[in-house]
User: What shape does this take?
Amino acid sequence: MPRFRGPSRAGPDLDLSPPVRLDLWALLLAAGVAVSTVAPPLAPMLVVSCLIVGLAALLWRDLLPYEWRMMAFLGPLFAAGGVAIALLHAAAEDPLTELAAMEPGEVVLVGRIASPPERSGFGYMADLRVEHLWYDGSEVVRGGGVEVFAGDLSVGVGDRVRVDGEISLPQTGDDGFDYARYLSTKRISALVEATSVRPLGEERGWIGQIHRRTDVALGYGLRPREAAVVRGMVLGDRSLMPEDLEMSFQRSGVTHVLAISGQHVAILAAVIYFALRLFAIPATIRAGVTIGLVWPYILIAGAPPSAIRAGVVATFVLAAPLFGRQVSPLHFMTTMLAFVLAYNPELVYNTGFQLSVAAVFGILLLTRPLKSLVECTLFRPFTKPPVQLSNLISVSLAAQIATSPIVAATFDQVSLVGVLTNLIAVPISGPILILGLLGSLTGNIYPLLAYPLNACNGFLVTILIRVAQESSSLAFASVTTPGVTQLLVALFYAGCTPPILADHLFPNKQNPLWPILLLLWTTTWLSISKLTVDLHGSQ
Amino acid sequence: MRDELFDTVTRGPGARRIPPSGVLARYRPHVLVSTLVVAVLVGGALYTARLSEGVPRVVYTASLEEIEDESQDPLKVDINTADVEELDELPEVGPSTAQSIVDYRQTNGEFQSVDELEEIPGIGPETLEKIDPFATV
Assistant: This one.
């Protein structure tokens, strides 16, 4: 890792000189976990490949630049570590799944609600972390998680409840959606169709209390539709969002502002950090307090994988200067991948996590080449291109390109107006989030204080809603892509690799050939997807 | 010309061979830290997957099979006589697979063994393993 040479360097010296690059350690470990989880037969091939590279580097000294040779030498260790982590998780027994597979009928569970209740086909559903499970009068299982379905679920996150109902295994839907796999990304093994869900005593969870109080606080001065949007942005809870509004957000490509993602965590961390700096609080305390406030927020927001990812990266970014380390976003991202996948390898199947990772990698790798393209085309007439605007367009375009295959495969449509709508949605989502948080806080202390804040927020939310609705009503707002396969997704990323590599190896700001090729490839891929789907449909 | 990274040979005047143990000694911190990082992450995975409080574990003294035996409503389904609704109750068997089992039975006659279910589209070895305790012929 490059040595940080700032004047205020403090903390222990973590540099391992002479210069040795071990930057790929996290990528190899994460690759070991991901490959072993998604395609176990390929795992030995990955380790053997790393061994071959390591041996070749040992025998043939000119194969790699000398600072990378130690990385090649240690590569098999990291890849094998990743494989071992995935195997440990895969080999873990799950008696809850075994019990559900027997479909034994009525069971009684006691546990804590782990997610806000959401509407389902017949009532509501919520995640439950199981403490005790009784069958036929005997306690059978402790631990694990189930998804509870009930006609009425008047409970909040953290509430301790007793659930009576029938336990079963999640089934694959008629559309091929593997519900069991989706639930496994949340460490949930079974479904319980509840006949009753009763809170135990007065033991209500503090997260649920905050959600309930936030609902009340956002009611002061906000209309229900606006409050539902702010609620989604502040708590990541979209259960009160009207269906038509959710569709508008999806078609216009701005749904991501409603999910607790890196953007939310970054905005919150930045506001706390710079607010503390205004009071001249020392950097160490500033970083500590920011980390200490960001993580409870992530917990309150239900700890979705995208927020955990962002929280880990934010922690690295804030902690790096304390240890005299350089802020290296790409290295932090791969390290985050290694940590988060070591905790739960099934997250590779989680759409929110995939989108979050793809968006950040896209922004890190594509923004610079796309920015030179934007400056050479859109802003060509300007002698001095507007930096903020070209940054915003490049970031928006980079995130859209990187996430489009996952969006196409998951939601069966890709927004074409997303690049433009995000130019408005992204800048105003920051103030909406901050005003929403302040409105929630003040509304709980003194409701009158919440009115002016919520009124200002209402104006911004109205703009956001109008942008989503107006742009989604355009005929070309999105292209439908039902039936995009994993192979097509892999093909897209494989096709993106050569222009990205070429741009980093042979950058040319005056003649941005590589980003043009990248955009052409994205358009071609979307056309191929549409063509494949049309051909499939006509058969 | 001297290679500075875990090279075993130097050239020119004063050339000498650095033994592998010397190479390891020189880069011991790198190897140590790397091994430690992998060990910590593997240990964390072990804890998360098997040892933590949230991991599901059996606490009843009886085995799950015994619980099934004790059940008043045994779950064994005769795949030669069961209708679509009964077959649907088998683990990992949905209505369409249940219908395929009935269709297969009508076309090919009665099943000779539960293993024959593997002939049905949508039932692989893993599914068969789950179905086996609850199916009979």
In short: The mean pLDDT of chain B is 74. Residues 28-51 of chain B form the longest helix (24 residues). Strands of chain B lie at 57-58, 77-78, 135-136.
